[in-house]
């Protein structure tokens, strides 16, 4: 049997009294010399007291809330040593130093950490290469987080409370049902950019703050794949040019987008799983029998996605009118929440600006979104020679939990065929 030793409150570094805020062990627990057994708190800091010696906890002498001073007995330990006589140990502060640096680190008396001394104390409390204050360690223990999985952003890579919070947030966002985890995202580096040059702070708009959160959630929670394609819209463009002036007289802008909306509805009929939402459990597909299409509109205050309802029941003229009204409302900040609800599928058109392709983010709870880029003349091989054709780049992002790659390829091929043959759209 080992010796029975009292574990006492060490030198408090100036504080006369501290409070026991946590008992980390119970009688019968096996402890190592560096196992934290009690957390004490002064009005300035918290500190964890290590067992000091390997052994078994015999009896707790304090409770949570007890106020104690230097030398007070916290608990008794049956040490693993050979000596059989019970002996009252001296306060930890006076304990002889261990011979190896590692042991010294774990059994060196703890001092309450004042803000200035905390970093020094972290060194002492470091397990392996991890440096963290006692509060952070306690929090990590409560959450069951192994601090060695985190990359600290403090001095000497010290793990800060913020690092822990961002680790937990990332875990929650990416939490799936069991399975292996891959260490989570590294926290974003905290950089003082003024060290590199002049800077200016500009607050994000309200819309950017809201849509940013939604975009981030959709990006991390939906397994996105983007299928690219091209539609030959030479005939469609010729048709549009023929009718554009007539529409303009009525102050209606006829752009390729309205034709694309019509073609999308036709493709949604053909491929109903694109006009669907996953139920919250991810077990059923809710198939929609209506065709409401969201259209991303770029406004000075950020991106909004008003919804054009019952696109299947509207003619090109009515759609063009409604799209103009909705984008006007969006740019004048007059959209109501109702204007942005109920979408089945979204279209994000950057065709008026340029670029060749992009990967749009799915607008949950929808399962797919079509990105449209600027049409360009391209040499297309036909009947033994190259001829110029106006090609429209399409980027279809889809939720791979719901849609297979083959279905997505079929969808984009079908859509391209519709856009390539104007008769389909007008009939
Ligand atoms: N290829 C070639 N030209 C195109 C085109 C395309 N794919 N799409 C539009 N155009 C042309 C139009 O025909 C028009 O030219 P004309 O006046 O000569 O006919 C010009 O580009 C401008 O069109 P527009 O952008 O004003 O109109 P639209 O109907 O195509 O789009 C709207 C309306 C509201 C979708 C658009 O103004 C808009 O806001 N787009 C940005 C959406 C966005 O930001 N998406 C990104 C989301 S992810 O951050």
Structural description of this entry:
By secondary structure, the protein is of the alpha+beta class. It has 3 domains: 111 residues, OB fold (Dihydrolipoamide Acetyltransferase, E2P) (Beta Barrel), CATH 2.40.50.100; 62 residues, Dihydrolipoamide Transferase; 220 residues, Chloramphenicol Acetyltransferase (2-Layer Sandwich). The chain is 29% helix and 23% strand. It has 10 helices and 19 strands. The strands form 5 sheets. Strands 9, 12, 15, 16, 17, 18 and 19 form a 7-stranded mixed sheet that branches. Strands 1-8-6-3 form a 4-stranded antiparallel sheet, with no helix packed on it. A 4-stranded antiparallel sheet has the order 5-4-2-7, with no helix packed on it. Helix 7 packs across helix 8. About 11% of the residues have low confidence. Bound molecules: oxidized coenzyme A (CAO). Oxidized coenzyme A binds next to helix 7, strand 13 and strand 16.
């Amino acid at each position: 049997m080992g010796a029975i030793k009292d574990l006492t409150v060490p030198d408090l570094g100036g504080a006369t009294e501290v409070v026991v805020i946590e008992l980390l062990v119970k009688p019968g627990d096996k402890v190592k010399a560096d196992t934290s057994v009690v957390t004490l708190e002064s009005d300035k800091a918290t500190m964890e007291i290590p067992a000091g010696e390997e052994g078994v906890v015999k009896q707790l002498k304090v409770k949570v809330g007890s106020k104690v001073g230097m030398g007070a007995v916290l608990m008794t330990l049956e040490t693993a040593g050979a000596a059989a006589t019970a002996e009252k140990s001296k306060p930890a502060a006076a304990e002889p130093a261990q011979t190896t640096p590692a042991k010294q680190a774990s059994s060196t008396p703890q001092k309450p950490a004042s803000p200035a001394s905390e970093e020094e104390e972290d060194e002492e409390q470091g397990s392996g290469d991890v440096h963290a204050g006692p509060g952070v360690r306690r929090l990590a223990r409560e959450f069951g987080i192994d601090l060695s999985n985190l990359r600290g952003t403090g001095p000497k890579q010290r793990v800060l409370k913020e690092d822990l919070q961002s680790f937990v947030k990332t875990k929650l966002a990416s939490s799936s049902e069991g399975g292996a985890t891959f260490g989570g995202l590294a926290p974003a580096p905290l950089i003082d950019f003024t060290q590199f040059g002049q800077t200016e702070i500009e607050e994000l708009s309200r819309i950017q703050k809201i849509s940013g959160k939604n975009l981030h959630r959709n990006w991390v929670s939906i397994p996105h794949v983007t299928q690219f394609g091209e539609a030959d819209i030479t005939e469609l463009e010729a048709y549009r040019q023929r009718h554009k002036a007539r529409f303009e007289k009525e102050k209606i802008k006829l752009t390729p987008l309205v034709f694309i909306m019509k073609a999308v509805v036709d493709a949604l009929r053909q491929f109903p799983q694109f006009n669907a939402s996953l139920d919250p459990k991810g077990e059923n597909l809710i198939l929609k029998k209506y065709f409401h299409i969201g259209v991303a509109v770029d406004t000075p205050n950020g991106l909004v996605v008003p919804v054009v309802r019952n696109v299947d029941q509207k003619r090109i003229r009515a759609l063009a009118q409604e799209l103009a009204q909705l984008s006007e409302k969006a740019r004048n900040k007059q959209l109501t929440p109702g204007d942005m609800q109920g979408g089945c599928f979204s279209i994000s058109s950057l065709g008026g600006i340029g670029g060749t392709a992009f990967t749009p983010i799915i607008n949950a709870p929808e399962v797919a979104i079509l990105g449209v880029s600027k049409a360009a003349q391209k040499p297309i091989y036909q009947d033994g020679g190259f001829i110029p054709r106006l090609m429209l780049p399409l980027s279809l992002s889809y939720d791979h939990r719901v849609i297979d790659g083959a279905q997505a390829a079929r969808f984009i091929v079908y859509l391209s065929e519709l856009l390539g043959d104007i008769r389909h759209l007008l009939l």
